[in-house]
Design a protein that fits this description.
Keywords: Cytoplasm, Methyltransferase, rRNA processing, S-adenosyl-L-methionine, Transferase. This protein has 282 residues and is an alpha/beta fold. Helix content is 42%, strand content 17%. The strands form 2 sheets. Strands 3-2-4-1-5 form a 5-stranded parallel β-sheet, with helices on both faces. It has a 5-stranded mixed β-sheet with strand order 6-7-10-8-9.
Length: 282
Amino acid sequence: MPSIDPGLHLIATPIGAARDITLRALDLLEGCDLLVAEDTRSLRRLMELHGVSLNGRRVLPYHDHNGAQMRPKLLTALQDGKSVLYASEAGTPLVSDPGFGLARAAIDAGLPVLSAPGASAVMAALCVAGLPSDRFCFMGFPPAQAGARKQMLQEAAIIPATLLFYESPKRIHRLLGELCDTLGADRQAALCRELTKRHEEVLRMPLGEMTLSIQDRTLKGEIVLVVDRAPPRVADAATLDAALDTALRKMSVKEAAAHVARDLGLPRRDVYQAALQKGKDE
């Protein structure tokens, strides 16, 4: 049996194909003193598939509904020098996952927190989407409330990075319609469904076309929606002039140039020269 260091070990579990478990995760499953899972049945099933015995250990539940009651017990075990394993239902812990509260509490208590990386729906979707991956922003599940969701999408519309959303099959049609209204129907996207599973599907097309292509379909399974970044804003001379007027009322030339360049997505040197010229003209 492998020797496991004391601390909270966060292991990634497969999002579909059971063979996507890592060798290190299997070592931790075999050797940790205490096993904790968002879904105890899923973890026990995974261990059975890979021939990992419980050896008298229990798998304790930890989820949104019992986290506050479980954390003190688990922190006590950690303080006693135990190795505690936490596994999400699927994928990497702490990504839209109740494990964040446990990890945060352990960190606040000065206890070791270690990661055994592996499967992640976010990264799997980014790999197959065919959209820019040099800069991306994970948006999680959009809020259920219409007002909060609208605000989130308006903020997302101008983010200069590829966007990744989690969404349920029941609400994906609504989200696509709202994205068309907020981000534009021409924005490229990829709908990634049931990744690594038997019925894996990836649809790559503009948001408007995607909305029409699935409008009569009842989708099933886990969905990650990947949306291309906001196009660069092009500021005309009048917009630059007005922005500099406003900034120069409150800032120095250097500060105003930096602020306006960042806000309009323009080269700072060009904006600085425009600000200097503006000062001379006035």
